[in-house]
Design brief:
Number of helices of chain B: 10
Largest interface: A-B, 21 and 27 residues
Structural class of chain A: mainly alpha
CATH class of chain A: Mainly Alpha
Strand content of chain B: 25-35%
Largest sheet of chain B: 6 strands, mixed
Strand content of chain A: under 5%
Distance between the termini of chain B: 33 Å
Structural class of chain B: alpha/beta
Order of helices and strands of chain B: EEEHEEHEHHHHEHEHEEHH
Number of strands of chain A: 2
Oligomer: heterodimer
Strand order of the largest sheet of chain A: 1-2
Shape of chain A: globular
Largest sheet of chain A: 2 strands, antiparallel
CATH superfamily of chain A: MetI-like
Shape of chain B: globular
Number of domains of chain A: 1
Radius of gyration of chain B: 18 Å
Distance between the termini of chain A: 49 Å
Helix content of chain B: 25-40%
Number of strands of chain B: 10
Chain lengths: 282, 249
């Protein structure tokens, strides 16, 4: 006996449960990190250098290091990524070279992050002689998030209706004038959102900075882009596995700060998207 | 009669599709030439050839020559050609700006920044498109807030603002109600005094109402072109007669 209503109910519950399952780990991660990490958070923890072999003091250099790395990665990857996306979706013809480039971008996104780390090490640290430095780390992270930025930007550009471009051309606008005054203003929200999400990922990555910038212990702030720096993800790894007898709340406190940093960036992305979308009239 | 546009032995392919076949045509200054024909007959391809908008399609290939005032249009810089040959599209296509900025768009692109001058041209263009009275108090609202018919007249005003010599209309009333259609047609007849108009239409009656001459396209060929009353009362070709009488298409 087939009862469509009963099957409907079963299917619905099944789909609903699967969806709920996604929320569970996110909720648990945040909950555990907050409960265990919150006691460690105080003014000293945020503004002091690590002390007593990283068992006390704060994580200020790691926070600053991560912020520097993120800014460096943005400065490099955002312009390159957006320009490449504009070229690919507005100018390039569908030929062999374009297809190779598009394939390369897809594959770039699939490269494991530790491979990026090795690549950055051999290219920037050794070959270009930048040494283990903020410059090398930023460039490595930048390359890692390039495919994310390019893909997000292309999607945003391609979501602008083709008719807008045709109208603009028909009024005597050149291709670049059309991109600047019609296409980009309507794609910018998507570009920014996608880029920030990519950058959020860069902030939390450990492997690419492992060989290119991260210092084990460096109780002062970097003074130039050729200095090594501490970074939150690597610091977390160090105090969790390399240094014995680190208090649990310091480890979870560090994790909490990293998590907040990434979630903050995602939140900013969501707010920007929301505000720019509200302005959109079509 | 002065020949404004002249096409010789025009052939267009999109990949393997032969979209326009050996078309020879002359378009006179200050006339409305209506182009009728069933779907896929090459009407729009012909129209978009005149402002070189076809070139942006992949696999586009063309043979033949189009002359504007005796000058081969392929030798004119494409941006300046499109300033001389304006176009109004089938569906209303406002840009995501305010009413004012839509009309002023072409001018701004051209480098006109003087606010007073912009205001003057926007007002006169909207008047010529019979839209001024309806929007004069709300030029700063989004163009998407207008009705379909108003949007289409806005698009006409936007095209007029760049002061073209020729205006191409690609089925401009296909999405409009009869009253909006009447307004657009009224605007076209008035515009003919100063512009040359090429009107592609699926509406045979519209062609008979506004066209000085009418051309009938079928499968990429120009079957017949003549004065509108002649086409509609005594067409030379049987296929023209069948199409006009509604026997196919």
């Amino acid at each position: 006996m087939k009862n469509p209503k009963r099957i409907e109910k079963i299917v619905f519950s099944f789909l609903f449960l699967s969806t709920c399952l996604i929320v569970v780990p996110v909720g648990f991660i945040v909950l555990i990190v907050v409960i265990k990490g919150l006691p460690a958070i105080n003014w000293q923890f945020l503004t002091d250098v690590p002390r007593e072999g990283m068992r006390a003091g704060g994580i200020f250099p790691a926070i600053i290091g991560t912020i520097y790395l993120v800014i460096g990665a943005i400065l490099f990857a955002l312009p390159v990524g957006i320009f490449a996306a504009i070229y690919l979706s507005e100018y390039s013809k569908d030929n062999f070279l374009t297809r190779i480039i598009k394939l390369a971008i897809v594959n770039l996104a699939g490269v494991p992050s530790v491979v990026y780390g090795l690549f950055g090490f051999s290219l920037f640290v050794i070959f270009f002689k930048f040494g283990a430095s903020i410059l090398s780390g930023s460039l490595t992270l930048g390359i890692m998030i390039l495919p994310i930025i390019i893909t997000a930007s292309r999607e945003a550009l391609e979501s602008v209706p083709y008719s807008f471009r045709e109208v603009s051309w028909s009024l005597g606008a050149s291709k670049w004038q059309t991109i600047r005054s019609v296409v980009l203003p309507n794609a910018i929200s998507g570009i920014i959102t996608g880029s920030i999400l990519g950058i959020g990922r860069a902030a939390g990555e450990t492997a690419p900075i492992l060989f290119t910038v991260a210092a084990f212990y460096l109780p002062q702030l970097p003074r130039s882009i050729f200095d090594q720096a501490m970074a939150l993800p690597y610091h977390l790894y160090v105090i969790s596995t390399q240094v014995p007898n680190v208090e649990e709340k310091i480890r979870y406190g560090t994790a909490l700060i990293l998590l907040m940093l990434v979630l903050c960036m995602n939140l900013i992305a969501i707010i920007i998207r929301y505000r720019l979308r509200k302005r959109k009239t079509w | 009669m002065v020949i404004k546009l002249k096409g010789e032995n025009l052939n267009i392919w999109f990949g393997l599709i032969h979209a326009l076949k050996d078309v020879n045509v002359e378009i006179y200054k200050n006339e409305i030439l209506s182009i009728i024909g069933p779907a896929n007959s090459g009407k729009t391809t012909f129209l978009r050839m005149l402002n070189r908008l076809n070139e942006l399609q992949p696999n586009f290939f063309m043979k033949g020559k189009v002359e504007l005032d005796g000058i081969d249009i392929n030798t004119i810089e494409v941006e300046s050609l499109r300033r001389k040959v304006g176009m109004v599209f089938a569906l209303p296509t406002p840009l995501p700006f305010s009413i004012f900025d839509n009309v002023a768009y072409g001018l701004k692109i051209y480098g006109i920044r003087n606010r007073k001058k912009l205001e003057e041209i926007v007002e006169s263009s909207l008047k010529k498109a019979y839209l001024w009275e309806e929007v004069k108090d709300r030029l700063n609202i989004s163009a998407f807030k207008l009705s379909g018919g108003q949007q289409q007249r806005l698009c006409i005003a936007r095209t007029l603002a760049i002061e073209p010599e020729i205006i191409l209309f690609d089925e401009p009333c296909s999405g409009l109600d009869p009253i909006s259609t009447a307004k657009v047609e009224e605007a076209m007849i008035k515009l003919k005094e100063n512009y040359t108009i090429v009107l592609v239409t699926n509406n045979v009656k519209q062609a008979s109402r506004v066209g000085d001459r009418t051309a009938f396209f079928l499968n990429g060929e120009l079957i017949e072109i003549d004065k509108t009353p002649k086409i509609f009362t005594a067409p030379k070709d049987k296929r023209t007669e069948d199409y006009i009488r509604g026997k196919f298409g």
